[in-house]
Design a protein that fits this description.
With 306 residues, this protein is an alpha/beta fold. It has three domains: 84 residues, Arc Repressor Mutant, subunit A (Orthogonal Bundle); 101 residues, D-Maltodextrin-Binding Protein, domain 2, CATH 3.40.190.10; 105 residues, Periplasmic binding protein-like II (D-Maltodextrin-Binding Protein, domain 2), CATH 3.40.190.10. It has nine helices and eleven strands. The strands form three sheets. Strands 3, 4, 5, 6, 9, 10 and 11 form a seven-stranded mixed beta sheet that branches. Strand 3, helix 5 and strand 4 form a beta-alpha-beta unit. Helix 1 packs across helix 2 and helix 1 packs across helix 3. It is rod-shaped and about 105 Å long. It starts with a helix and ends in a 10-residue tail after the last helix. The C terminus is likely disordered.
Length: 306
């Protein structure tokens, strides 16, 4: 169905006058009449009743008017969405984040602000470890990441990063532990003979590797009594007395009653959350990425802990 013919039909249907419709469309009347005749042939029905003085819609014309208006409006909307997508104002943004990221108040605030400013951008959110995010970025499976890289880990060159927030790794002890009431901060080396509840080893670069590096600097390899993928599960196991753990300080806000957080004296205890994406020259990712990057890295989005 020819869109131009539908546009001509709607002009005549609304004006009920070929001369005025032609003026509205900035064309002469004979070509307009020809377009209407071709549309009637295509539809297999007469669309207008014509006399010397009046023009009116036939029953077939009345039925076509609503459908034609919908088709023209959808075409206009599609064109507008395509133009918005090309400039990053519409589209789909695939965002991954590590487990601790949603605990930062600024995370939900920046997502809400972005959605309010760019309602045509669909946010596809998923949980991934730091290592999984790096693999997903380089393979084009995600556009943006919020990760917690280990201090010793070098993020690959094609990936750009921006530090958003900082906190510290802290010792999580059962409340019944002899050191639970000890003065802080505590050196990790004091707990070399203890059993730990830690994340399982996953694709490198994140929190697990940071904790192993801390233990190595303290002169020991931790004895892992129980692996747990979620930090909330780790804290529950610590509360149950299955071992101690090392977790980011942000988790103090969801710490179960049976756990005591103690600051560490170790120099490498500082941790950070980084915003990452592929360098623009390295990827054909969503055009929304620069807008999101600019929105998140604005001064108003910053939050520092510890």
């Amino acid at each position: 169905m020819d869109l131009r013919r539908l546009t001509c039909f709607l002009a005549v249907a609304e004006e009920l006058n070929f001369s005025r419709a032609a003026q509205r469309l900035h064309m002469s009347q004979p070509p307009l009449s020809q377009q209407i005749r071709l549309l009637e042939q295509e539809m297999g029905a007469q669309l207008f009743e014509r006399s010397r003085r009046t023009v009116s819609l036939t029953p077939a014309g009345l039925l076509l008017q609503d459908k034609a208006r919908q088709i023209v409006e959808l075409h206009q909307q599609a064109g507008e969405l395509c133009r918005m997508a090309a400039s990053g104002l519409a589209g789909r943004l695939r965002i991954a984040f590590t487990a601790s990221v949603p605990l930062f108040e600024a995370f939900s605030r920046m997502l809400g602000d972005f959605r309010q400013r760019y309602p045509q951008v669909e946010l596809d959110l998923q949980h991934m470890t730091t290592g999984e995010q790096i693999a997903a970025l380089t393979s084009g499976q995600i556009d943006i990441g919020f990760m917690r890289p280990s201090p010793a880990f070098r993020i690959p060159v094609p990936i750009r990063e921006h530090t958003l927030w900082r906190d510290e790794l802290m010792l999580a002890l059962p409340r019944s532990h002899p050191q639970a009431g000890a003065p802080a901060p505590l050196p990790l080396s004091q707990f070399a003979d203890q059993t730990f509840v830690l994340h399982p080893a996953v694709l490198g670069g994140g929190l697990h590797e940071h904790i192993l590096a801390l233990c190595s600097e303290a002169g020991f390899v931790p004895r892992i009594a129980q692996p747990a993928r979620e930090t909330s599960t780790m804290l529950a196991l610590v509360a149950a007395g299955l071992g101690l753990s090392v977790v980011p300080s942000i988790y103090a806000c969801i710490c179960p009653p049976g756990v005591v957080f103690k600051p560490l004296a170790d120099a490498s205890r500082h941790s950070r959350i980084a915003l990452v994406s592929m360098q623009s020259s390295q990827t054909s990712a969503s055009a929304c990425v620069p807008l999101f990057w600019q929105s998140v890295t604005s001064r108003e989005a910053a939050q520092t802990l510890g």
